[in-house]
Structure formats: C-alpha cells, structure tokens
Amino acid sequence: MSFNSAMASPSDPSNGEAVLRRHNKGAPLKFLVPLIYAPVLPLIRIGFRRNPVLRDRLFTAVLAGGFLHGFYLVTDLYDSESK
Question: What is the pLDDT of residues 54-66, one digit of tens each?
Fold first, then answer.
C-alpha cells in the first residue's frame, strides 16, 4: 500500500468509495410510492361503493401491498446499515 492511496481525500476519484457514491438530486422513487397509493385507498372506498365485495378485496390488496412495501423499505434500510 502506497502512502498516496492511504491518504487519498474523499473527493479523489482514485478512492473506490468515492467512485461508488453518486449524488442524486431527486428523491428515490421507492420513497415516493406512498404518495401514489395513499390517495388510492379512499378513492377505492368511494368508487366501488356499489360493489362491496370487489371494494373490500381491492382495498385489502392495496393495503397489504402498502404494508409489504413498507416492510421491504425497513428491511432494506436495516440491511444496508448492517453492512
């Protein structure tokens, strides 16, 4: 190991970690998904008022999908922190 590689600054492109890090200016899409399915839940209740069986099944499916998405985000977050 040479002296230059041990003392490389974080902005130095020869440093492997600096190359892997990207600076995204926007929010990751996986965190914006609740903004899509959260308003869908009341719209399902209102829109399918005349068909309660379909309404309840669709509402349950979307709600379960939301919980699964949240579970995925939390486990992904904990997984990345443990590495």
Answer: 999 999 999 999 9
Between the CA of residue 73 and those of 8, 9, 34, 76, what are the distances in Å? Answer: 34, 32, 11, 5
pTM: 0.60
Helix, strand, coil % in the chain, rounded to nearest 5: 70, 0, 30
Copy the structure tokens of residue 71.
């579970």
24-44: burial string, b at 16+ Cβ within 10 Å, e else? eeeeeeeeeeeeeeeebeeeb
Give the angle 35-83-17 at the CA atoms, nearest 5°: 90
Pull the structure tokens for residue 68.
């699964």
CB 18 within 8 A of CB 11: yes
